[in-house]
Fold each of these.
Amino acid sequence: MENKDQSQGILWEVFIQGNPGIPHKHAGSLHAPDAEMALQAARDVYTRRSEGISIWVVPAANITASSPEDNGSFFEPSNDKPYRHPTFYKVPEGVKYL
Amino acid sequence: MNALETAKFELCLRLGDSALIIGHRLSEWCGHAPILEEDIALTNVALDFVGLSRNLLSYAAQIQNEGKTEDDMAYLRDVVLYRNTLITEQPNGDFAFTMTRQFFYDAFTYFYYKELCNSHDLTLKGIAEKAVKEIDYHLRHSTEWMYRLGDGTTESHQRTQDAVDELWMYTGDMFASDENYQLLVENNIGPAMEKIKEQWSIKVNEVLERATLKIPSATFMQSGSLKGFHTEHLGFLLAEMQHIPRSYPNSTW
């Protein structure tokens, strides 16, 4: 069978929330023709071992990503600013998922 | 077994064999589905059905009380002793055929197991309660495919309509009833088939209409699974499924 891009639907990125209150995390990607089928495929591919309680699917084309060439101006300026790290605070006991 | 036990035993075989056979059919897609995502989806559903059949066949063996196991039930019975409904044994055909078969049977299990949750037999009730969430998803999945295939391209529409036309005559057998089953209805163990058929028809009409598919006008229905009469396909399926346990009895790995 031919494996043209279109024959598999468009590319979706999948985000799974593992537990209540914590952020959705990128789990991977998949192909599907539309949102409902993407959601179902995400359920089948990424939550079959009880990994999640909530799923987001986003068309990969709708994600705007920074490019590697921007790394210098985007990320390096923070390298010499240790005071931005919250290492001077005590984390209260019992706080999870930090 | 007394009359009621016999009736329960027959129901467990009917539901358990149907789950096993359609699970096996779906498992035949493993590694062959049109896209990777659907390959995983179909095998997930296959596993749900095989799991369901294990519960039902174990219970059948328990009712029979001859010291048999779920494996004996699955692997050591011949075609005429199988009670799965005819639609479940139909070969996969193309993807549209498989999905249409799945949709027809999912719609049946959806309404049937929901009602079975009210069974006065606590084991069947428990099995049904565990199954309904899985079945909910199965129906959602096959329904969405019916919309997309039926109301998709000219080719997908034609293939799905052909599948509906070809499979329609096997749908009646799902609702078959006999003296055994009537006894279960009277004892509030199994739901009346008329009610399930009514709910099923409404759902199927609704989905096929939205999928721009037509229900065939021919009304001839195949039947016979309650007596062990099957289409020619089941024997080949069992030959493949039972080959290892029959060739190497009691082997373990």
Amino acid sequence: MIDIRNLSVTYGRMTSEGRGSQAAAVKNVSMTIRKGQFSALAGESGSGKSTVLMAIPGLLPPGTAVSGEILLDGKNLLALPENELNRIRWRRIAIVPQGAMNSFTPVLTVGRHVEEVLSVHLGLSRKEALDRITPLFALAGLDGELARRYPHELSGGQKQRAAIALALACSPDYLLCDEPTTALDVITQRGIIVTLKNLVDEKGLGLLLISHDLPLAASVADRLHILKDGELAEEGDPAEITARPRNPHTRALVKALLDLEEGS
Amino acid sequence: MTTLLDIRNLSAVFPGRRRREPVRALSGLTLTLERGESLSVIGESGSGKTTLMRCILGHVPPSEGSITLFGQDTASADGEQMTALRRRCAMVSQDPYGSLPPTLTVLGAAMEPWLLVRGKHAAKEGEERARNLLGELGLRDEAILSSRVRLSLSGGQRQRVAIARALILDPELLLCDEPTSMQDASTRGEIIEILAKRQRSGMSMIFVTHDLFLARKAAPRGMVLHRGTMVEEGLCRDILSAPKHPYTRALVAALPRLGQTACVSRQHP
Amino acid sequence: MKGLLKRWSFWCLLVLAALALFGTRLFDALPEAEVAAPFSKPLWLDRSLPPTMDLELSGGHPAAELDWVFGAPSRFSLRVETALPAPSRFVEWTIPGGKTFRLTPLNRGVELDGRDIAFKRSLGLPPFGDASSALFPERGTYRIGLSGEGEWEGSVKIRLEGGRWGLLGTDQRGRDIAALFVAGIRVSLLVGIFATLLATFLGTSLGLAAGYRGGWTDAVIMRAVDLLLSIPLLPILMALAALWGKGLWQLILILSVFSWMGTARTVRALTLTLRDAQYIEDLRGLGAPAGYILRRHLLPETLPVLLATMTLGVPGAILSEAGLSFLGLSDPRVISWGRMLHEAQSFGAFTAGAWWMLLPPGLGIALLCLVFLDLGKYLEERVDPRLRGGNVL
């Protein structure tokens, strides 16, 4: 499991005139991501969710102050040198960052994207890589034929699934997804969430979903964490949290959402 | 004359660019809105909702059918008449980043339509109205009111300013497209309530959203728009509880509900 | 804008501007005045050469001594100014070793020059001899004084022209180069800033018109841009300078007419993207006149970009002016760095080895360009945070 202990992150702002103001994005957050479990991290925009996700594979910008520990099999990822982190990225921990569906290179087909990842990280030849594409795409709910399409020829939902397929290329143990369903229509959203859930149930992946949509996160997660202003406001079983929220903010939030759903 | 808006068999076709097919943004749409009445349009991107709003305001000419706004046919209205009609309406578009002028201050942005229509001599009254509106929407801090729109406003704050900008001329018809999308879930209801207050004073509203729960709260009557056609209409609560069209059914089933956690499992793809 | 104060270019520009405005007061004579021998080296350059010196004797100050450690000066001249001549008194020159020469009685309006044959004969020299070497045969202490006693009103001005003068030496006409340099800042700054201002004004107006109105206006303006861009700048400037005259304001006008195109294109592109913004459409729908939209919204949006482009355009204007002046196509009465380079080249600075004539204006042009480039870079960074090289999260 990925064990995050007392993680605190402060961004430093460098300008050509020297250091600007510093903002503590994450304050003393502890949580675990277990294999075979669907974990979700919900919170408003600016609450620090993306920061937590980016801290795990060591992708925070240079100059950021990070304290605490992120343990993977007993090793602290925050203390690992870059070359060792590189061996963990893609192969043990894979991410689908925010806006991944718009980050494809427009001049390569989505299949080529996958081939590239496979050849760089697993050293596979072109032939070996091509064989892997169809089952990989199937995992992400995509038809293997679509590998020959360019990114602009795919719909939003298809692109997002392609991004998931890309992340799954090296059969990682953990998948971290940052807002994978934002900007997609409701029905497509549901489809992607179901795909992710199947990955957890059938492949035993440890999944972390980041979303600002609390009902979405609650509807699918085994374990829900709610972040507010960089601090962990709530964590536990989604049904528990909905029924008995402990934090006053969460209470107000849950009430507002339930009122809307019930039409009062 | 109590019919505010009368749309008959509206179609809007955009010519295809290069070798592409022409795009049918709207097909055969018919709807009527009486004075003081509101309507929720349930639609997502690609449904034709933006085209619908732009047609109502006369920015896009109908390819077929007619739109009668405040008793005037928009296709035959000249520039001046159209401007007069538009001044009685207001629109809050989906993207708050493009709908506010970056060079003005927050207060200035909210006041601008008033100054434009009423003239510079009404500036004082305009400023008071703007301050009241922004205060109602939760923007009271003087530092924020006098800061430039382009800098440091969050998406949620921008949406509120856009709403203030739309409400300042007391429009008879308000068209809004996902006006609460960037708000926190706990404050969404506040904005709807502010709009509801004006609805009670006689303002008509067309509220576009993909969230059926929100649609139900915004207006009792609703219409589902899918790929340019109206696939279902009726009371929002009826659409939610007993959807008829396959698209509507899929939409209702896909809506995440806090009240039904862990409803996504292998059995319900 | 606080970062501006930390930029070296800002302070440099302030210093140069101050020099342009008040610098000529630092010098006693006008820049065009002849102050010393032509091609004099700067004082700090060759200490074996005698510097140009002026001495003055008067009734109250009848003698002066010189410790002379150099070779002979290149020219010796003397002038007596008095209302009351004293023909019995003389100006006496004593060389080391004691020998004294009588140079002239104190008569009114006497002007002696070391090159006069009469003067040479009075010293006992053949007609083609060198009066200066005779007067300065060796190193040592020399004395010049008025003989006789008594009151006398008037002054004797002696000038010893050596090979050195001032901070930067002199040019082919004996003008102080340091003074010329300072005077030249004015022209470079003037042309650079005004030509660019005018070009920016033209470019912005035309760019806004083309971008906002589209259609025929856009087509006509863009074809004009294409046309002007295809004309090579320096040849056309030369032709126009020949036809139109070499005045400074003509030059500024011509330079601006041929440099507005880049700004126009940039502004047009910006206007095209802004024109389709939702809020612009809303304003137009409400009946806002085009002028209002251009003035209140589109123009302020283009200003930050304009400021940076303008500052970066100044070096171009400076170089064009310098280039034209160097080719001799500028007003000879106006001192500019380019003109200084032209004169240096035409009047044999190279053969005379007078590099101090070439280096100051050349470096000056380079410095001014660098100042504006640095300022422009700073302004660009402020407009586009991505260029700052910092964190963009």
